[in-house]
Amino acid sequence: MINIIVEDNLLSQSFVDFARTLPYVRVEETMPKKRTLAEAAAECGGVCSVDEFFDELNERIEKWEL
């Protein structure tokens, strides 16, 4: 088995389309689809907006100072 990594862009799309037609080639999508900022933040438990971030940060600072 030989692995070939092809960057997903308009120039490489014709090569990938051709490769899919070959009986001995298997094309696998390995890169995750692009996510929105809100999706990425929700996945890792982060906050979505700058205001929410600073509100949380200020709360933690106030609790830490006590």
Helices and strands, with pairings:
Elements: H1 10-21, H2 37-43, H3 50-65
Please explain how this structure is put together.
The chain is an all-alpha fold and 66 residues long. It has one domain (10-65). The chain has 3 helices and no strands. It has helices at residues 10-21, 37-43, 50-65. The model has no long low-confidence stretch (mean pLDDT 82).
Instruction: State the order of secondary-structure elements, H for helix, E for strand.
Output: HHH
Helix content: 40-55%
Structural class by sheet pairing and helices: mainly alpha
- What summary fits the major beta sheet? none
| Overall tally of structural domains | 1
Query: How much strand content do the residues show?
Result: under 5%
Radius of gyration: 22 Å
Quote the distance from N terminus to C terminus.
61 Å
User: How many strands appear in the DSSP assignment?
Assistant: 0
What would the average pLDDT be, to the nearest integer?
Answer: 82
Put simply, the count of helices is: 3
Shape summary: rod-shaped
Low-confidence stretches: none
